[in-house]
Specification:
The complex is a heterodimer of chains A (55) and B (672). Chain A has 55 residues and is mostly helical. Chain A is built from 3 helices and no strands. Chain A has one domain. The longest helix of chain A is centred in the first third of the chain and has 12 residues. Chain B is an all-alpha fold and 672 residues long. A two-stranded antiparallel ribbon of chain B has the order 1-2. Classes of the chains: A mainly alpha (55), B mainly alpha (672).
Amino acid sequence: MIKSFWSFIRTLSGDNAYEEYLKSPKTWHKGKLLSRGEFYQKKIDEKWNKINRCC
Amino acid sequence: MILNNIKKKIIWVIVALLGAFAFSTIALSRDESINALWFITAAICIYLIAYRFYAAWISAKILVLDEYRETPAVSNNNGTDYIPTNKWIVFGHHFAAIAGPGPLVGPTLAAQFGYLPGTIWILVGAVMGGAVQDMLILFFSVRRNGKSLGQMAKEELGKVAGTASLIGTFVIMIILIAVLGLVVVNAMKHSPWATSTVAATIPIAIIIGIYMRYIRPGRVLEATAIGIVLLLAAVYFGGVIDKSEALRIYFDHDGLFLVWCVIIYGFFAAVLPVWMLLAPRDYLSTFVKLGTVIFLAIAIAILQPEIKMPALTSFVDGSGPIFAGSLFPFVFITIACGAISGFHALISSGTTPKLIDNEKYIPMIGYGGMLLESFVAIMAMVAACILEPGVFFAINSPAGVVGEGANAISTINSWGYPVTESQMTQLAQDVGESTLFARTGGAPSLAVGMATIFANAFGKHLLAMWYHFAIMFEAVFILTTLDAGTRVGRFMLQDMLGNIHPKLGKTSWLPSSILTSAIVVICWGYFLYIGVIDPNGGVNILWPLFGIANQMLAAIALCVATGILIKSGKFKFAWITGIPLMWLAVITSTAAYQKIFSENIRIGFLASARSMEEAIVQGPLTEEKVTILRQLIFNLRLDATITVMLVIILWIVIIDVFRLSINRKDSVKVAF
């Protein structure tokens, strides 16, 4: 119960996004593997180039 | 099986009866205090019934959701923007995106009519309008590969509607940022504690930004936990600064100085890389926001405070001190977010449709997300209405309307709301502020309301801490909206300018970023500046303008939805969006007409401009005063022009839909 809640919070906040990225089979076929820092940078750049906060 | 069915039916009958009882308690009670728990009960029962029956009926009968159909997240899965995601995670992202400061500020201002009009509109508006809009736009966007509202408007209704929604979005963004900036400035004005705490959030965001980018990349939760501890420390040390004669002068500023700070801050926030300020600030604000909202709900449930505000005040006639204008149409303009908000349509046709992994979750995310936002608005209403009405009006009425100090007290007493000067002084002292008179914008009164609830539920001696925690909580995500909005405005502008000169359209080209950010900041900075120099408090002008703009965008979204329903041969069901659409068309047009042409100088832009011109002619006035009056006159005419433009845009789009419904061929059925 606590474990699944914790994993929910991690997924919701994007805390485990890099681990998921490493696990995902697709990523291995796309050339260069991103480092933690590069991956985080890419994620936030994608997140903040459009309207995703409202009134 | 049959027994189970009967059991279920009995449970729904109980929910319905309980909801009806709670609602009639708040609706019919006069001159007797009622418990805030009835608001919560009525809201939850209405949401449950609306979700279980209305949303389910729309999904099954009209949209015919198909759980076996691939969503764009699945068919286009590219690991970047199209990603099939767990429904609760999508719900969390969607809610975090739609719920900003709007549902907190709007109900607080609308409480000047009494608790009842705002509460009814929040509940009915959300279940019949806002939630339907959000769900349908989400559904149509999912069926169109995640297309945006602007694209759908262009394809379904025509080029004019597409352009209209684009212009509308930009205008709303500018006015929204200006009015939110005004709310923050008013909360920080001559308050060293609030100013230092809010200022501290900037270095805190940068520290955890560096932490997440370079020290422990991507460790969002660790960094956020550190950030929240630092934020709480900032609230505490703000109190220390406030008590130190040597330090407090550095943070004791008037509105105009703070306006410049916010403008400069907004510019840098839009130009700096996202990892540095925007992203870390957003993580903090999202967690603080969710935490505080849950905390507030728990505190209301424990404390069960009594509502002190009457059901209706005499200000339903339009003479209200916080903003002028009668109950109809202004309560529906003042509360946009929380009942229906056009801005949500941009989120429902933005990130969310690209994450949903099954159509069957659309009601939960689209309809349910809006219900939760509506619930936040109900809690804001409760927080405003547990204050003594006299105190509520003393905090929220601008000095230009009620006078200062003793004058304000006698004016407010003459309305029949008892409050004394010593009571206000004591309250200001308790929350650690020099004064609470004329702290317009809604944030201080919401903070006093929240602090009262928190302090009574979790420790009375900490009122000042709770108050500044609440101010920090509001400021933190208002500034996030300001940062993110300026940035999006910059992208929209770069997109448009790219048509003129391709290089200007490149978001990574620094000169273009600086130029477009500066233009966007100047646009909202102008309205913010005018809002602060306006002696009647800029809220009276800016908030209705924002409401009209936001409801206009909602009307465009509902036009798109109605148009698609008609085109798909569902004309007989088009009322589900058609009725809210007609209602919005009526209220926005009426409000716009009154804001432009009313002879009452507190309502009508043009009448107000005329009266200022007369004042200049009659004189004698100091040169400084004449300059300010001229700026205000120019601004009032500009506001009138913007309002006319918004109404014209609205009716062009409505006529498009009308044409569509006349020319429809019921035999032709195009799939959604």
